[in-house]
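Check these lines:
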Amino acid sequence: MTRDLSAQLGAKVHRRLGLAGIAFMLVSSLDRVNISFAALGMNSALGLTPSEYGFGAGILFVGFLVGQYPSVLWLQRVGMHRWLTTCTIAWALCAGGTAFVHTPLELYALRLALGFAEGGLAPGIVLYLSQFATERERATVFALPMLAIPVSIVIGSPISGWLLSIRPPLGLASWRWMLLAEAVPALLLGVAAWFYFPDLPEEARWLTAEERTWLSSHAAHRIRSHARNDWRVLCSPLVWASALLWFGLLSGAYGIMFWLPQVIKRLAGVGSLEIGWLNALPWAGAMLGMYYNSVHSDRSGERFWHIAAPAALAALGIVLASAAGAGVAALLSLIIAGTGLGAAQGAFWALPTRMLTQSTLPVAAVAINIAGSSGGFIMPHLVGHVLERTGGFTAPSLLIAGMLLASAMLVLSIRMLPAAMPSGSAS
């Protein structure tokens, strides 16, 4: 009976909250990475060099670093629906405002503000969903919002390419029109969040009384405004090893994400619409790898190899794509790389969260996400710098592949670390 109830709850949570989380993460990701398409016209309009563009793309993650813990703390204080509405409308205004920049400094300032507004979204959704997830569904529930990143690129790339290819209204440049149009969905979602999300399982009217009672004793974690966060968890080697692993995985993702449209344009010499479709293919692989690997990890109960093996596969795919040059072989290698990268990310959060307690999860989740965000800042700028020095994408590709291979090796060392539970804590 317990297994049936758990499966029934898991399906409801996936449908009602997991998919909704995907929608917000999808729009957030789209407003974050569509600068990679804007760069096709923006770089020349603003006079940006490759390293300056990489800095502008990555400085968003400095805002992430600053905004994550205050945002999650505020979530604990005011509840999900108030928190998500405010964050979403704020980032929509920043994303839309980027359409009106005229200098590099204006671009940097708005990217920084956008990162601050979005900073707490990923750890906040992980924390929020943890009170609706049991141990068995942990990887799948946490992977659903992360699916938004590859889904946003699969959907957003053709849309961005199409918006760039049509005649823009009001005499706007194509890249400005694209940024402005793609900020509108966030405004609409921000209003919807106020009415849709329950703050606690007890407020979820779509759960039966039996399900709410069962969750009160079986949920992985709970959000309580009066709960004290245990900062001693920052002394745990597990937290910092997990943070370094997340840094490596996201460095690989963002190192590819912000540069791939320009790589495709250089290799294939096609128009904006074709670039949009080709750019979507590796992230379609990431989407499939993320979902199916997390489901398999939950079914098997194994976590470590479900991260290490895909990360190594992603590194191999990037090396093969770099060696293949232009053509179908390179595209297939990028799809392999995307599949491996998505699979590794999809299974990641089930690893540290199963070894954390209610008092240690908020602090640890923010610390881990801060590390990942720093990878998003460092890697795009580093790729731009290496590209300027070498004149080609081979050296940046090897840099990204090396980061992913090191991440795969790190996963296996985490197996030997103790759980991050300070003495006196209880699960």
